[in-house]
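Internal QA ticket QA-208
Title: Verify multi-chain structure generation after dependency bump
Assignee: T.L.

Test input:
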Amino acid sequence: MPGDVDLSVDVAGLRLKNPVLPASGTFGYGHEPGALFDVSRLGAVVLKGTTLHPRPGNPPPRIVETTAGMLNSIGLENPGIDAVVSKHLPLLAGLGVPVIVNVAGDTVEEYVEVARRLDRAAGLIPAGLGLELNISCPNVDAGGLEFGRDPALAGRLVGLVRAATGLPLIVKLSPHAPDVVEMGRAVQAAGADAISLVNTMVGMAIDIWRRRPVLGGGTGGLSGPAIKPVAVAMVYELAQQVEVPLIGMGGIATWQDAVEFILAGASAVAVGAALFANPLAPLEIIDGLTEYCRAQKASSVRDLIGAALPQRGS
Amino acid sequence: MLSEVTGLVNLETGVVVAQEMIIPGHFVLTLAAPGISRTGRPGQFVMIDVGAINKLPHPLADPFWRRAFGLYRADPEAGRVDILYRAGGKGSRLLALAAPGDKLSLLGPLGNGFPLEEAEAPVALVGGGTGVPPLVFAARVLAGRGIQAKAYIGGRSANQLFGLDDFAACGVPVQVSTDDGSAGVQGVVTDILRPDLEALQVKTVFACGPTPMLRAVQGLVGQYKLPAYLSVEAYMACGRGLCLGCAVRLAGEGEPRYAHACTDGPVFRSEEVVL
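Actual output:
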């Protein structure tokens, strides 16, 4: 009885038929044959971090497996916003699901210009085009994480992007924000429609025989189940202090993981690095969520959002 | 760049038919996997979810990634594929525990494979270590097409060599080098390849092995301006073009440019990559 549970959620003005998304950077541009399933089954498609100009990315090795996770230092390899708009977005137009473009940059001006160009492309995606502002990339020299560590800088950036586009605006936070609540309030006040968290955590692996860091970029971003409890705690904390919806991510590999984030206050969840070993993880999570709602006698997944928060407890 | 990914990439449940240790620490795993057996070509690889035997969820999400293995044999009639691997790391040691009847999630065939149709005879198959199994697969296909080939295999020591009989079995002669001289010529694989290049006994080179070996082969074939194809190694998370982790630096001046071993490779023209 697939129709008896309503999995739809509204996030940042986007209508998602279910709350399960791919995390930016783990799903390419959503139309590659490597996806291996019908991506229109997702709540939305989230594209890789996109900058104003093409970027070649960081020198290899860019990734390394760690205990229950991985480090990456891709360095925002991407073809630039114009290629994303002209080459990739048209291929996603017919999917019938919203598309969220992750936007990155070194300077405020770059972010704003990318947002302007996406704003002009809104008509390409009838189901809705949104922006996810990446102020938390640990793998680029300038910008990126700097914005994610300073609420005043982040607020100014979000305000200027807000002024440049009417598109749904999601701001992706770093787990390295000194105070996630202060950061969340700053970006909410500046006009964010939703907040996604968390991006990867800075980490390092060392090759003990070469006596050097494994990754070409030295440090990288840690993702995978190893960071999940950190991410759940940050969602739980922030959900009590902001009004905008949250998209929870960080180590989600199973439907049970997704449920934890939803109970902690996330309106939607993103599956990232777990997609690599288990390409069908998002579909398994959608199925598992449906079963869980049924077992909990919840007619809508919306009834479960934040159900573990103190003021909601019995 | 060589051919793009074929679009035939698929998820397939493989059933373990047999697993045999051929020399200490090295195993041949035979899987019933009809889909991959039909389309898999030499130089292509499969990614196995080594942490989820029989579809048990990863209990500790560890190992977190699938492991990539070059195809050693694909037999479409029997619907089987073989891989030959060394149980060295935690992923491959887990795989060595797989027993007949166990089910494994396979992703593949992945990558472009060796462009055997471009092979002008005589062909040199050059490699070592876990680079040997794809070369054996290539040798069988080339021999089946009546294309003359010879294998040049390097290793640390006689007891680390494997696959030599496979070349002989399909009529491809093998020459061996070892670091310690315990088998074949004492030295590295380029020491045994060089004389045949000088004697113009090689028209095409296919190589697969550790990066230092490939680098040496690249340097040597560059001197002789021979068409050469190298199957490169890279850490790989997704195997299908999504994570952009397996970057390989492309040759050229100016701002660095990268290809990706999983979808653009793993086989590249020797002159187009920086190792």
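Spot checks passed. The first helix of chain A runs from residue 81 to 92.
Status: verified.
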